[in-house]
Fold each of these.
Amino acid sequence: MIFRKRKRDRGDDQGDRRLRRRDRETDQVETNPTQDDEETRPAPQRRHGPYDAAEVEMPDDPASVGRVDLGGLQIPAMEGIELRLQIDQASQTVVAALLVRGDSALELRAFAAPRSTGIWDEIRKEIAVETTRRGGVATEAIGPFGPEIKVVLPTRTPDGRQVTQTSRIVGVDGPRWFLRGTLIGRAATDPAVAGPLLHAMSHVVVVRGKAPMAPRDMIPLRIPEAARAQVLQQRA
C-alpha cells in the first residue's frame, strides 16, 4: 500500500465545494435512523454493487473476505490493482482511496447523503456548470452504474503547452451515502481499460455508520492498522 501526501489544489477545492454546497435553509444533519425508518426505507437500486455494510458479510477481520478496511470504505483486494491512499498534507487525514492499474487510476470518495433522496443527479448538474465556467466540456452518458459524466478541461503542461485533461466521473447513490469514482489516465477515455477498475468499484463496501452527518460531508477514512508502521517510517 502506498501513501501520497497531497496539497489541495484549486480543482480539489472546487470539487469538494460542489459536494458540500447546500442551501442553508435545507441543509440538515441526518440523525440516527430509528428502527421504523430502517424497515420502511426503499430497497437500494444497486443490482451489482457497490454495497452498503448492511448488505454484505462484515466479519471482524475484513481481510478474511478479501477487503482492506479504510473505515468508511472497505476496498476489495484484486490482482493487478494497487491501493494508494491520498492524505491531505494540512490535516493529515485520508481524503480518498486511489485504485491504480497501469497508467490509469480510479479515485474513490464517499459522502453522507439524505435518507430520503440521492444526490448524484444534482451533483452532475453542478459539475457540468463548473466545467463550462472553466472553459471545458461536460458530456453525460450511461455507464455500468447508470448516469455518469465525462469532463474535458483545458490545462497547461509544465513547459507551457496548452492541452486538455479528461476525467470520467461515475456516481452511486446508496442508503444515506453517495460514492463518487473519478477515472483518470487512459481509463477516462478507453472503456476496456476502465473495466477492471469499475469492476473493483462494484465490490466496494460503504460503511456509513449511524453517527449524525450533514449531507455531503465526507465519510471519514482511516489508515489500516497494519499499515500505520509504514506511515511512521515515511514521516521519519
Note: The radius of gyration is 18 Å.
Amino acid sequence: MPDPQRLDLSNFAEPVDVQPGREIRLKGSFRSADGATIDAATTTWPEGAPGGSSIDAGGLVDFKNGGFHVVSRDPVSHEVVAVATGEDAPACAVAGVSAPCLPLRTVHLARSRFMTREEFRESMKGAITIELVDPPPPVAVPAYVPVQNALTSPFAVGAYGVVALFAIVGLVLMTRRRRAQSPEGRMRTLAARVERKLRTCEAELRATLEPVVKKTLVAVSSGRLDAKSREGLRVADVLARVETRIDEMSVEKRAAEEQRAADELVLEMETALEAARETAAL
C-alpha cells in the first residue's frame, strides 16, 4: 500500500492488502449529524449529547470480524493501529471481498440513529485514511575500517573516537526505537501510559488498577507474557479498554468542573444583580 487509501463509506467492507503480522494505521474521523465524532475504533459524544460528553469503545470498523486486532487507539488524535491476525474473517466473506478487510458498522450506527444506511452515510463529514505501517528498519552495524598508523596522530585518535561515539549512540538509539516498535515495546508503552494516566484518577480506582498494570509491565519485561501471543493480545485489548475508560472519566471530570465553575459564576452574577436592584429601589 504505497499511498494511503481512503475508507469508502459506500462499501460494506474495505479490502486491505496486508500480510498476517503486519500492521495498518487508520487516521482521521467523521462528524455525524448528531454531533458525535466517529473514528475507526471510538465514538466521542459532545457535551450536549443526551448522556453528556463521553467516549464509547466502538467506531466505524468491526476489526475482529475482518481479521484484525486493535493494537492501540487514541480517541484524541483519532489514530488506530491494528495488526492482521491471519484468523478467520467472516465479515469479509459476507461482504464478498478478500480477507483481511475492514467491515463497516454503518448499518448498526444508522439503525441506532433511526436512519437508513444511505441517510447516515450522506450525513457523515470527514475522512479516514488507511496506511501500511512500515516494519522497523534492521539494525545497522557500523563497518570496521582499519586505519594504518592511527595511533601515531592524537588528532586522528580524537577524530575516530568522536566518530565511534556517534556510531555507538546511533546504534543504541536505533536499537531502542526498534524495541519500542516491537509488540513487546508497544505493550510496555501502553501499560506505562495507562499507569501514568491512573495517577490523575480517584484513589479507589488507582488502588485497584495500579498493581495489575505494574504486574503487566513486569510480566512483559521478564518474558513471562509474550505480547505476540493470543493471550498477550487479550491483555493489550483490556489495557486499551482501560485507557479508553480513563479518558472517558477525564472528559466527564473536566465537564463537571466546568459546570461547577459556571454555576458559581452564574450565582455570583445573579446575587450582584439582586443587590443592584435593591440598591436602586432605596
Note: The radius of gyration is 26 Å.
Amino acid sequence: MKGNVIVASGTALLAAKQVPIVFAVANDPVSSGFVASLSRPGGNITGLSLQATVDVRGLH
C-alpha cells in the first residue's frame, strides 16, 4: 500500500523524494537542509517551524 503523505521528523524527512512530506516541528528547517528557504521551501515538503525572536532594545 502506497502512502499519500508522510508526517515525519529528523532524517526521515530526507528519505522520501516522491511522496509529499509534512514535518511536525523543525527548529531551523533551512540550516537543517529540509527546505531551501522559509518563503519558498521547494520540493515535496512543508511543515511547522517554531522560531523564537529576540527583541533587544537599549534603555536610555
Note: The CA atoms of residues 5 and 18 lie 10 Å apart.
Amino acid sequence: MCTQKIVAFFSLLTPFIWFTWLTYVAILPMCAILGRLALPFAFFAMIIANVLVLFRLIKKAIYNTSTDDGLFTPTRDALQEIFPRASGKQIARYEKIVSQADEFDPFLIISPNLNWINQYGEQAYHLVMDCFATEGLQNARRDENSRCVFHFRNGRELTDVRNAIRQRLINTFYIPPALQASHPHGQAVPVGSAWILTKVGVRESDFWEDDTFFHVHQ
C-alpha cells in the first residue's frame, strides 16, 4: 500500500519532470558557454518549474483527496441519478448545498412519490418536507429551502428527525401488509424515496438508496 502511494505521488510529477529536465539540459550547456551570464536564466527557469509542480500538486490534492480507485461518485452525477428529471440549474443548486457541508456530514435526499402526492396533494407533501427541514431546529432550516436536500450534523440527528416525524405524520410512512392489522388506516405508499449521501472530498460523494427509510417496522 505504501509503495503504491509513493508511486502514485511521483506519477503526479510526470508532466513536469520532462519540462524540468529539458530546462536543465538547455541550461547546463548555456552555463558552460556563457558562464555567469546564464545564471539569471537558470534561476528563473528553476523557479518557474518548481512553481508549476507545486501548483499541480495542490490542484490534485484539492480535487482528488478522496478519490480511491473510483470508489466514490462525483456529487453532480449522484444528484443526477437521484433526480433524473431535474434541470441543470436545480442540480447545480443541490450540488452547492452539499459542497457547503463539512466532509462526511450526512444528507437525507428525498425524491417525491407521485402516488402519495396524488392521494394527499402537493401542499401536504410540502408540509412533510418542511417538517424534515425544521424538526429540532429553532428559526432555521437544514435544506436551504430546497425541500429535498437535508443536511444533518450526524447520523443520530437524522434518525431522531425521522422518528419524530413518524410519530406525528404516520401517513408519511408505508405500512407493510403484516402490520396493517395494528394500523387499520395505514398508508399503502410512502411519501417518497430516501437517499443517504455523504460528502467525501470537495466534489465527490458516497450515496445509496435506503429502501426502508419510509417503512414502519413495528
Note: Residues 4-12 have pLDDT under 50 and may be disordered.
